[in-house]
Amino acid sequence: RGIGKAIAVKFAKKGYDLVINCVRNEERLLQTKKEVESYQASCLAFLGDMGDMAQCELLFSKAKKQFGT
After folding, report:
1. Are 36 and 20 in contact (CB under 8 A)?
2. Under a CB-based contact definition with an 8 Å cutoff, are residues 44 and 14 in contact?
3. Complete DSSP assignment for 6-30
4. What distance in Å separates the CA atoms of residue 65 and residue 1, rounded to the nearest whole number?
5. CB of 19 within 8 A of CB of 63?
6. FRET pair for 3, CA 20 to 30 Å: which of 18, 22, 36, 56?
7. How does pLDDT run along the chain (69 residues), one tens digit per residue?
């Protein structure tokens, strides 16, 4: 929503594909995903707590599946 969103949008404008995360606000996460994708960047949006190892592993599994190694 703040600096993280600004960084994601800046990378998207430069053509990078992204993985973005939010702990609890799915609506805001999906709005950011839509904005990132408006710059023709692929974006994996993940709702989860990165303080939880199981959720981190799930995020990395999904990122690997979507973007490769």
Report:
1. yes
2. no
3. HHHHHHHHTT--EEEEESS-HHHHH
4. 26
5. yes
6. 56
7. 689 999 999 999 999 999 999 999 999 999 999 999 999 999 999 999 999 999 999 999 999 999 986
